[in-house]
Amino acid sequence: MFYKGKNSIQMNHFFKVITLVCLLFSSLLTFGNPPNDDKFVVVLDAGHGGKDPGKVSHGYNEKDIALKIVLAIGKELEKDPKIKVVYTRKTDVFVELVERGRIANKANANLFVSVHCNAHTSSASGTETYVLGLHGNKKNFEVAKAENEVIFLEDNYETNYAGFDINAPEATINITIGQEENLSQSIEIAKMIQDKFTNTLKRKNRGVKQAAFVVLHQTIMPSVLIETGFITNTEERNFLKSTSGQSKISHAIVEAIYGYKTIIDENTGNVLISPHVPVTPVVATPEETLNTSNNAIIFKVQIASSSRDLPLKPENFNGLKTISQEKAGTIYRYFYGATNSYDRAKVLLKEAKKSSYNDAYIVAFRNGTKISVTEAIKSASN
Ligand SMILES: [Zn+2]
């Protein structure tokens, strides 16, 4: 029909339709992965399962306790339409560590939370949350080794985890730059989880730690592995196996996830640092005097985190001056600038981004302690 006669309008129309179809097709290709409708995607990973019971003590299996806690976390989070929950397992099945990572990566997750229980002598107690890293010490190595041993139950572990010697205390894992960037976020959520366990549940705090967990090595988003307590300790086992204990633990984790999500929301734009809101140009004022008295709010721009202790010279930071550093665990965080003004902080953020720190974000401190930017703005304007 289109070729009948000399109607160039019809021909034009034909090409328009073809172009449209091509455009549609290419956009389908581009957006092959659903963008999750701007939801905050949490992957919940119940440790072990199926033929791998995890630790066993007095007839209780780690795999069962971990699953119950995970399902309770998921049940609470699923009530929130802004959150999407993805599980690596919802039943008593065996899932390879590499597959757990694949599930999280495929889901474009914002956060990966793996739930486990510890085991040692009957006197050992307390909770600890791990982020990926080299084993800080022998104790961390022992915990990671025990959790990593599950790979020997997998069929293709030699190929799946090539080069990862789980028996080597000085694990030679290759932590990618992306994973290193995720570390500061992982430490952030790990700290929040430990704080909730300690302050709200009054559990003994063994702290935020780093070790080479195979499962954390598979994911490309901020990821933590929680040891919720020792099933070898009578008091902790009784707590972990009880419905009320599981519900308290899961609720504490949910609250920590919300605390973390708030910080992420503040820094990813829609709320406070929207790129559409014009930033008032502020001329750099090096003579700006920083109020460091008690309760003064100080904003900085976090530009990077690294396991390396870099000298604070401009040449190490794409030419940026006034860099400061903070050590958290074995990770160094690097900040650009320091100001009492949120408006000025937004300008500093722009400067950092111009210097290729595209993932930089604003952080706030009071009395040297990190607080949420929302809280800081409220306090600063009071
Ligand atoms: Zn485990």
TrEMBL record:
Name assigned to this protein: N-acetylmuramoyl-L-alanine amidase
Record bears the keyword Iron-sulfur: no
Gene3D superfamilies, sorted: Zn-dependent exopeptidases
Enzyme Commission number(s) of this protein: 3.5.1.28
Top-level taxon of origin: Bacteria
Keywords of the record: Hydrolase, Signal
Signal peptide: 1-32
Organism: Neptunitalea lumnitzerae
